[in-house]
Amino acid sequence: MNTLAKRLLAALLISLGLIPSASARLRVTTTTTDLAALAETVGGDRVDVFSLSRPLQDAHYLDATPGMIVRISRSDLFIENGFDLEMGWVPEVLRETRNRNVRSGGPGHVNASNGIQAIQVPERIHRDMGDVHPSGNPHYTLDPIIAQQAARNIADGLIRVDPRHADTYRANLEAFIARSDEVVNEWVARFEPHAGSRLIIYHKHFDYMFERLGLGIADSIEPLPGLAPSARHVAGLIARHTPDTVRMVVMEPWHDQRVGRQVADGIGVPLLILCPTVGSCEGAGDLIGLFETNARKLLELLEAEASE
Ligand SMILES: [Zn+2]
């Protein structure tokens, strides 16, 4: 093909939306707002990012919709969290899309968990009992240091579909790594006086962050991730713990706060609602902001208790 014909073909493909032009922004679709924020951090002004879930939607429990299929079909890059977080809906959406590039194995598909070692990988899978963490804990984006690997995977994906701007993506990635190292290390130091403090959680959502900050998990209100607590399980938690064994009960806003309150009051410790995702709270505009917002809430309560 001669040069003119090549240019005409490229212009036609661009106008049909089949390949991105040099100046057009990439259309990036993510499953969660956390991944959307990370894609914006790495993609900068080269990307238009859309999250399939809203900030206060629990990504474990979305349903595949025709709108999701259309959205993914028109995307240059699709980013999923992995570790089975989206097992109830993403496989179906990807099966239905006509865009082969964004399917698993395609150049426009990113599993952000590649290269991350999940915590809490179960020895025995309780999927039949409703365990929604059969591959271990999928909520690694709560720790920006672990999310650095997800950011690398996203940068690799962006470079695959848009190699002309590889330097931009690499520079943005390095900036995120440097900033997250700096911010998280500051918070780890501030938590040192409280290292080893133990909490009761509702769902295993914030565990990567707690591990980073040196906090321990004494028990969880859900007997298994995704399994609603029985009255007997709740009574057992209250019987087993005292303010000497746990400092507080921590939970997500989308679980039953009456149960969280019952456990906290029963033990005699405070209940703290943390921000589960980017966009769910003021200040939680990106992954570092989410981490800082939650760390600040935790530290304020730990310090208030210590001074009592
Ligand atoms: Zn979960």
Any overview of this molecule?
By secondary structure, the chain is an alpha/beta fold. It folds into two domains: 24-117 and 143-184, Rossmann fold, CATH 3.40.50.1980; 190-306, Rossmann fold. 43% of the residues lie in helices and 11% in strands. The protein has ten helices and eight strands. The strands form two sheets. A four-stranded parallel sheet has the order 2-1-3-4, with helices on one face. The protein has a four-stranded parallel sheet with strand order 6-5-7-8, with helices on both faces. Helix 2 (33-43) links the parallel strand 1 and strand 2 (47-51). Helix 6 (166-191) runs parallel beside helix 10.
Strand content: 5-15%
Overall, the morphology is globular
Number of helices: 10
What is the CATH level 1 assignment of the largest domain? Alpha Beta
Q: Which structural class is indicated by helix and strand composition?
A: alpha/beta
Q: What is the subunit organization of this protein?
A: single chain
In CATH, the architecture of the largest domain is: 3-Layer(aba) Sandwich
Query: N-to-C SSE series?
Result: HEHEHEHEHHEHEHEHEH
